[in-house]
Amino acid sequence: MSEVPRTHPRYASLMTREKLVEGVGRGITGLNGLIAQGRGEALDYLIGEVTTAPAMEAERAAAAMLLLAEGPVLSVNGNAAALVPKEMVALANKIGAPLEVNIFYRTEERVKKIADLLRGLGAGTVYGDEPDAQIPGLDHARAKAARGGIYDADVVFVPLEDGDRCEALVKMGKRVITVDLNPLSRTARTSTVTIVDNVVRALPNLISLVDEMAGQDEAELRRLLEGYDNRAVLRRSVEEMISHLTHQFSALDG
Ligand code: ATP
User: pLDDT of 33-68, one tens digit each?
Assistant: First the structure.
């Protein structure tokens, strides 16, 4: 990885880029992942590169949903594998969930590399390299899933998922939690809980929230989920962007 000085004002963002470029070099991230990250960065800029109040509310709902789930599964794509592999494994281990490698441009080699990376970081069960089921409504390569993994899960945590697959999972009756910096994407609008935050901030937040909320009783977690309104959270996320931009715009006159 090339040296980024810690004092650089854009240290966090530059490190994220470095990790993705390194992921491409190691054969775990696809080239298209770099384009997706670019789009994410632009949107992150619009929210001020912080976890907003609506994002925190979605993260709280996501933690409650994961704690209440009967068979949760965490899905890992090439970008998540480059940016937050340790955190994905830590979250999976905390809630006792398997991980499943699920990449958009599937090659068996890349799936295996990501699965090995996760296993090397202490993951328990990792699915994905031997898919034995098909998600209805998707083309063959994108439909691949594992029994015991995403195919059978009641709750799927799938950061950075594409709209079609997200829709297909919801149609199967699953509750889907995603992380997507675009509050207007199909994924964002289709998911049950959409976290409009950078995956590099969302994962550490989720791990702390799961720790904090694990002691709460089920009725309390259920009440939290019942009061959660994803549409309202998406609208407030857009408002956060508008307000941040308005603030930046006024600063131009100052
Ligand atoms: P959809 O199919 O849901 O409409 P899309 O085609 O707009 O999505 P994709 O190219 O499938 O988008 O995926 C990129 C998405 O991932 C973008 O919405 C982008 O904002 C988001 N994204 C990229 N990097 C990050 C990141 N680090 N953290 C959170 N979200 C990210």
Answer: 999 999 999 999 999 999 999 999 999 999 999 999
Dihedral over alpha carbons 104, 110, 114, 115 (to 10 degrees): 100
The position carrying tokens 């409504």 is 137
Query: How far is residue 211's CA from residue 175's CA, in Å, rounded to a whole number?
Result: 21
Q: Which of 32, 34, 39 to mutate to test the pocket of ligand 1 (most atoms within 8 A of CB)?
A: 39
For residue 112, report the distance from its CA to the centre of ligand 1, in Å: 23
Q: Is 154 left (phi over 0), alpha (psi -120 to 50) or beta?
A: alpha
The tokens for 133 are 């089921």
pLDDT tens profile 67-124? 999 999 999 999 999 999 999 999 999 999 999 999 988 999 999 999 999 999 999 9
> Could you tell me the distance, in angstroms and rounded to a whole number, from the CA of residue 41 to the centre of ligand 1?
10
| Token pair listed for 87 | 């955190």
* Cα–Cα distance for residue pair 87/5, rounded to 1 Å: 24
Q: What's the pTM value of the predicted model, to 2 decimals?
A: 0.96
